[in-house]
Amino acid sequence: MEFIALLSPEYFLLAAVGCLIGIIFGAIPGMTATMAVAVCLPLTYSLELQQGLALLLGLYVGGISGGMVPAVLLNLPGTPSSITTTFDGHPMAKKGEPERALKICIVASVFGGLFSAILLFFFAPLLADFAIKFSYIEKFLIIFFALTVIASLSKNVLAGIFSGLLGVLLSLVGAYEISDGGNGEYRLITDSMEDYLYAGFALLPVLIGLFGLATIFDEAEKGIKENTSEDQVALSKGKRFKFNVFKGQGVNLVRSSFIGTFVGMLPGIGGSAASVLSYTQQKNMSKNPSQMGKGAPEGLIASESANNGLTGGALIPLLSLGIPGDSTTAVLIGAFTLQGLQVGPLFIGENLEMWYAMVVALVFANLVMFGLMYFAIRHIAKVVMVPKYILYPIIIMMCVIGAYAINYGIMFDVWTLLIFGIFGWAATKIGIEAAPLVIGFILGGSAEVYFVKSIESYGNLTIFFTKSPIAVVLWILIIASLVFSVVVHRRNKLQAALEEANA
């Protein structure tokens, strides 16, 4: 019980503040939980690790949950994972039940978040204990598998694979350290850049640029259309919320939360896939499927419980294998990097008190999210009307200050921020996806080290196929993920062609 000493009043205060800021970010269309975590990451520099993680986990939970507000009131998903909340949330709001719709979402969200926290608590240590037995070969294959899953489940398989490989390539910029099995020489840079890129691109400016600055550039390109007061549905009227709306929805809640947690565990898939999958399952199982999409509470329950279920699920591969489950947990790696810690199979065993503190922070953030949104939803709903021309300059200033200060005042980090901000904005125009790229960038260095160490130890490539039964299983999973992606891609192509022919 030594971890209780880590749970100071500041720890709980930071988790609550993070949750509130996350809700605000999530409630503003165009701003995501990933952006909230990326922008606030430099603030953790001066904090103790447990305090920084409490702040970031609060941002994560709040950011995911806040997306329900514009989804219901404006028919705009605040975060990508809120897309299915619009299907029934906005029709319900149009019928004069906006507050009831939001409170159904809030209760479903807190259930999904707590459900995933429980699975995280019991499942992550088991997976970490199993992963400790992995050699360099299995570790390399795990990363290879993660990259194939990320790429194969992207919108375009080839673009996803290219994005992941581009991220790996960017991670190799700089000196090839002798301690990593290299020769100490520079690679992928010119002589004039050796002083700036000796250790490669700094992780945090890259993350803030791709997820913070690029989002603002994208919104600026669209013209930052403001929501007028006519767009918003008033909360002061309509049918009151009662908990009996959840009567008979126990299976829906548990199934959707489980789907959200499971999808969250798969690297790079994201919450939108979790909520769509849960919504589809509920529609297939529903006694009144014709009402889904017309303001059915069961649709909101499926969407939001899956949406928040992924928060704990995405932390499972991060803390047990060192592989981020989604783009937000990829940014969380930056917090560990700032504190000089490496997540992976040894993290939980060597940092048991920190592990317990993280689980407490996740549970506390979900409870704070419930308290804030359930009792103050009328005030929080006004956030969607805050002008973006006020918000975005403040966020840009926070990005620049954070990038400059993160490595004790290095101006090149600001240039890195700008370069990756512009790159992230331009990349979407040509089909490059940010999530595979970032996860490739984060895992690329480790993949190289494990590959080189494996060759040094065994001397040939065949060992990657014959080392152990685990290696064989991992190759089967890698092939299965690629075959699955081809099948899904062809099915989607056929379906699109069929819809076009019928149109």
From TrEMBL:
Q: Which residues cross the membrane?
A: 12-45, 51-74, 101-124, 157-176, 196-217, 329-348, 354-377, 389-406, 464-488
UniProt KW Transmembrane keyword: yes
Q: Which domain of life is it from?
A: Bacteria
Q: Which UniProt keywords apply?
A: Membrane, Transmembrane, Transmembrane helix
Q: Which residues form the DUF112 domain?
A: 13-439
Respond yes or no to whether keyword Ion transport is given for this record: no
> PANTHER family, per this entry?
TRICARBOXYLIC TRANSPORT PROTEIN (PTHR35342)
Q: What is this protein called?
A: DUF112 domain-containing protein
